[in-house]
Batch of 4 targets.
Target 1
Amino acid sequence: MRSIDLESLEIFRAVVQEGGVIRAASKLNRVQSNVTTRIKQLEQRLGRALFRRQGRGLVLSPEGELLLSYAQRLFRLADEAESELKSGRAMGVFRIGSLESTAGSRLAPILSRFHRQHPGVVVELVTGTTGALVQRVGNFEIEAAFVSEPFTPGALASRKVFEEELVLITGEDVRPVRRASDLAGMTLIAFANGCSYRKRVEEWLGASALMPARTLEFASYQAMIACVAAGTGYAIVPRSLLATVHSAKDVRQHELPARVRRNRTHLVWQGTPSTSLVRLQELLD
C-alpha cells in the first residue's frame, strides 16, 4: 500500500523551501501544529527522520535530501500530466477493436492519418466478431470497436461509419446462385458464432427453411477465401475486402438479395469518449 501522497509531499517541500514549520504553515494557510503533525506522520510511515535540528532551524537529513529529489520529480510529473490533460491533445494508449474485414479494407488509411496527427497516442488494435467486440467494449476491455449489423448495442453509444456491400462467394465451378435453395447441401465457411455476417446468411437460409450441410469455422478471411477457392463451400464477405486478398481472383462472386447484401459498419463505445476517441471520430466524419 502506498504510504506517500502528494499533499504530504507538498507540506514537506514547503517546510524545506521556507526553512521551517512556522513560515511553511503561513504559506500553506495551515496551523503550525497541523504541519508538524503531518511531517511526523510522514517520518513514521517512512521510518526515517527527514530533518535535523540546527540551532532554531531545521536542516534536511540525507534521507530528507533523497525524498526531496523524488518529490520534485513527482511534482513536475503531476504538473506535466495536468498540462497535457488540459491541452486537449490526444495522448496515451488507445485500445480499439475491429472486425477483421474492416481492419483489412478500411482502417489502414484512417489509422495512418490518425498516427500522423496524434503521434503521442499508441493505438492497440484487436480483431474479433461483432458479438465478442461488443462484449469487450461493455466490459471496458477496449474503448471502442468497429462492428457490423445486426447487433444489439444495449447501453453502448453507436454511429454508422461505413456502408458495405456483402457478396456470396463460391468455387469457380459453382453455377450462379440466385436463391438460397441453390446452396442446399453445401458447406458454409464462416467465423465463429457472434459474427454478424454469419448471422445474415443463416437468417437468409432460414427464411427458406434451409440450414448449411455443415459449417467450417475459420479465424481469418484469407483462410476462408482460400478454402472457398478450393471448392470446399461458400461464404459471405464484404466486397471491399475481396480487392485486398490475392486468392479472391480464384472465387466466383454471386449477388445477394438487397435485404442481405446491404450492410453498415458502426463504431460503438461506452460512456464519455476520451480525447483519442473524439479525434478518431473527427476523422470518420
Target 2
Amino acid sequence: MGTRCDHRLQKEKLAQLPGILRETGIDLWLVWVRETIQAPDPVLPLILGADLVWPSALLFTATGEQVAIVGSFDAAVIPGDLYDRVVPYTEGIAVPLRAELDRIAPRTIGINESKSDVGADGLTSGMKALLLEVLGPTPHAARLVSAEILVGRLRGRKSPLEQMRIRRAVRITEGLFDELDGFLAVGQTEREIQAFVHRRMAELGVGFAWQAASNPAVDAGPDKPFGHGAPSENRTKRGHLLHLDCGVQSEGYSADLQRMYFFGAPDEVPDEVAHAFATVRDAIARAAEFLRPGVRGVDVDAVARAHVTAQGYPPYGHALGHQIGRFAHDGGTLLGPAWERYGDAPHRHVEAGNVFTLELHVPTSHHGPVSLEEDVLVTETGCEFLSTPQRALRCVPS
C-alpha cells in the first residue's frame, strides 16, 4: 500500500487537499479505519501509504492541518514528514478524538460513504456505528456528511507522479500487445494466449490491473460470450476476430486497453468487419474531441453513443469510460449514460488531471465483436491520448 520510505506520492496528494476541502465546503475530512490490511479504505494509500491496526482517525482541515489519532502501537507507522501531529492512545480513541473535534470545531465533517462511488465508500457499516457511538454525547455526530465529492476530486486529479506511473503502465501494456504480434497464430486457444501474457508480465515484474483470471480477457471469434469471463479452450480461426482486454499495474498504478486482431491479410477483412471497426474507432475519436474540463460525463458518453447508433448499431450496454488510477476502475466521474446502476457518477463534471478509458463495442454477424479501449488524460483544454490509438485492425498472417 505505497512506499514506507518515499512519500512523494502522499505529499502530492495531501497538498491538493486544503483546496478541495474549501471547494466542497467540508470543514474537516475524517478518515476512520481499523485493521486496514483486512478492510482497507481505498483512499489510504493516497494519504498514508501504510496499514493501521487499532481504530484510527486521520483528520484533515481546510486550513491544511493534518492530525493522526492512532493506537500507541501504530504511531510509529505515521510518517513524520506527512502529518503535523500524531496523537497516540492506549485504552480508547473516544477521548482524544472528541478533544480534537472540539478544538477544530468543524461545521461539517466528511466521512467516506457513498452510494455511487466505490472509491469513496471505504467506511464500513460497523465502523460508522462505532463512530456514531463515540460521537454520540457530542454535537459532532450531527455534522457528518458524505465526503464523496471530496474523495472523487482527490482520486481523480492525478498528480504529476500519478500521471507518470499511469503512463508507464500504459507503455508496458502496449508493449505486451506488440509482442503478441509475433506470437499469435491460427489454432491457439484463448488460454494459451493468456498464458503467454501472464508469463511476460511475470518476467517484467508487473502486476494485474484487475483479477488475473480475466486479465487479459481473450475473446476469439463469434462463439465466445463477450464480457468479463475467463479465457476458454475456444481456438483462433482464419477469418475470425480476436479481442483482448489487458492492463498491467506498475508502481501501484494501472492501465486498461483493448485491441483487435484479424486472422488473415488486410485485403481479406470483410466489409462488415471493416465498417464495425471504423465505427468504434471513430466514436472514440469523436468522444476524445469533445472531452474537456467542465463537461458532464453523461454528455461525453452521448457523443459516442450517437455515432454508434447513426451507423446502424444498437447502443452499447455499458459506460463509455471510467477513471483509472490505482485501480482499473478508480471511481469518481463516469463517462456513462444516466442509468440507475451508475447513480450520480455520470452527472458529475470532468476535471483536468482525470484519466479515463474510452471504450465501446459493436457486434458483427459471423466474426466476433469489435471492441477498442484507449486511455486518455484530461488537460486544461482538452484531452491527451496516453495510449497510441489503434487505427486499423492488427492482421495476423494465416
Target 3
Amino acid sequence: MTERMTIRHLLVATDFSEPAAAAVDYAAFLAARLEARVTMVHALEFSPWSADARQSDTALAGREEGARFVRELLEKVHSTRLRGVRTHTRLVTEGRAADAILLASRSSASDMIVLGTHGHGRLVTSLIGSVAAEVIRNADQPVLTIRRAVVPNQSIQRILCPVNYSTAARRALDRALYFASAFDAELLALYFEEGEATDEAIESELERMRRWIGEVPLSVRLTCIAHRGEPGSQVSAFAKSHDIDLIVIGAQQTGDGTTTTIGSTTEALTRRAECPVLTVPTRAATAQRATTRQLVMTGGVG
C-alpha cells in the first residue's frame, strides 16, 4: 500500500429516515469491527429557525423546544442503534445539510463520513442524492453512502475496486486493501476494456494491472479482472452479479474555485449501486465558501 491508513472515527449523518437508520446501523457494524468511535450529526434546517427569523421570545422558545426534541431523538438513536459503541452526538442549527456534514467532519477530525441517500426526513431537508453528491464533491475524507432503505448486508466478504491507473484509483485501492485486510475479505480489482477487446488484449491488461498494483499484504486475497464494457453503466451490474458487499472507488475531483465536480462514473455509481459505496477523494476539498451560514453545534451523549 502506498499510503498507510486507519479508521478510528466515523461521522454518520442522520435525518431519521429509513436510509439514515441503515447508515447508522452500518456505521455501528464498522465501528465495532474497527474499534472506532462514532460521531452522529443532524442538521436543523426548518425555516422558523433560519438566521433571518425574528429573535422574539416566542421564536427563541420554539427553537429551544425543537432543539431539545431533536437531541432526545439523537439520544434514542444512540442508545438503541449504537449500543456498545463509543458515541458522541452533534446537533447543527442554521446550516444547509451538506455544509453541516462537511463542517462537522472537519471539526471533529473524522476519518470517514457515512450517510444514507434518498431518504425523506420529517424535520429536515432529507439526505437525498443531491446532498450526498455535494458532500462527496467537497469532502476531505472518504464518504460511505448507503443507497437503499433496506439495511445492507452487515458483513464484508467481497470488495470491488474499479481501477483505471489514475491517482484517484490508486488512493481507492489503498483503502480497499485496508478494508480487505481488516475484514479478511476477497478484493476484486476491476478494469473495463472498452470496445471489442481480444483475449490477447485482456491478458495483456491483466498483466499491466498486476504490475500497477504491485505487492499486496499476504493477508489479502486479490483477484485482478479485466472486463469488456463501459464502466459508467456496468460497475453496479457487475457488483450485483458477483455478490459484492462493498465498492471502493476514487473520486476525481476538479473545481474552478467556486464549484467542484467528480467523475461521472463515480457519481452514477453512488446513485445506482445496491451495496454500500465508499468514495475516496483525490485532494483536500476547497474551504467552505462564504455562503455557509454560521453553524452552532451542541454536544450530546457520549
Target 4
Amino acid sequence: MIRNNLFRTRDAHGHAPVTNIELFFDLVFVFAITQLSHALLEHLTWVGALQTLLLLFAVWWVWIYTTWVANWLDPERANVRLMLILLMLAGLALSSAIPYAFGKTAWLFVAAYCSMQIGRSLYVVWASWGIHQHRARNFMRITFWSLLSLPLWIAGAMADPATRMLFWAGALLVDYAGPLLFFPTPGLGRSKAGDWDISGAHMAERCALFVIISLGEGVLITGATFAALPQDGTHWLAFATCFLGSAALWWLYFDTGARRGSEVIEASAEAGVLARRAYTYWHIPIVAGLVVSAVADEMLLMHPHGHIEPGFLAVSVGGSLLFLIGNMGFKHSTADRPLPPFSHIIGCVLLIIVGAAAWFGHWQPITLGIATFAVLVFTAIWEWGSYHGGWQRWAPWLGRLGSNGA
C-alpha cells in the first residue's frame, strides 16, 4: 500500500525528535541565508533592504511551514523522506534565484516558492485523508490560502521590479495573514487551536537550529573575510569584535530564552497557538537581525577605519536592534510576566543612543562595532543577573526591575 499512516508515533511525553533528514533539509537554508546576506551587501540601499526583507519573509515561510509539517509526519518513512528531498530540490532552486529575484530569475523564485507551499499542503491532505480528517481539512484551508496569493506572485513575476515589490508584498501579506486568522475558507470554516496539536519541544528545537544556521553565517563571513585581509592589530581587533558579537547574540538567545521557551511550549495545553506566536512570527526579526548583523561584520572587517557610511550605521545598529526586538517578543510570549524583558528594552534604547552618538560624533567603524558589542554584553549580563537572581544579592532595585521580565 503506497499510502499508510505516515504520521509520527510520539513518546509518552508527546515528544517528536528531530531526525537526520530534517537536518539535511536545513542545508538548503544555510545556502539561502548566505544568499540573502550577500544580496543585502551588494544592494545596501533602502530599496535593496526592502527587497531582501521580502525574500527573507518568503524563505522563512517555506522553512517554517515545512517544520510544522515535519512535526506531524514521520520523516523516517521513505514516502515522507522523498517528499522532503523534493522540497529540498525546490528550495535549492529558490535559494539560487535570490540574487536576481527582482531581475531575470523572478519566475524561478515564484515557481519554487509556490510549488513548495502548495505541493507540501496537498501532500499532507493526501496523507491525512481517512486517518486524521481534521488535519486534512486544516491543510485544505492552508492550500486555499496559498492559492489566494498565487495570482499576486505570478503578477509580480510579470511586472517590472518596482511594481513586483508591491505585488509580492501583497502576496506575503495574504500568506502571513492566514495563520493569524485561522485560515477561514468557504465551505470549510476556520481552523481551531486543537487542529495544531504539535510537539512543542520539536518546534522549539527546530527554530533553535535555524537560529544556529543564521549565527553560523556571521561566523563564516567573519572567518572568510579575515583570512583575506592584512593580519595587523586593527583587523585583529575587528575580527575579535565580530566573533564576540556573534557569541553575545548566541548567549542572549540560548542562555535563558531557548530553554525556557522549550519548557513552556512543551507543557502548554495550546502548544500550536503558542508556537504560532512565539516561533512562527517572533523569530522573523531574530533571523532578520542575524542576517543584517552578518553584513555589518563583513563591512567592519573590510573598512575598520574611516568615515561611517549611512549603510554601515544602519546594519551595525539595525541588526542588533532587530535581534533584540525579536528576542524580546519571543521571551515575552513564553514567560508568565506582564512586561517584556526590561534588559532588552534598555538594550534597544542604548543601541539607538550609540547610533546617534556614532553619527553625530563622527566615530570610526571599529569604535561603533565595539560600542554595539558592549551594548549586547551589557544586555546579556543584566538579563543573566535578573534571571538567575544575582541582582537580588548585589543590587535589590535591579532585581525588582527584573521581576517584571529580565
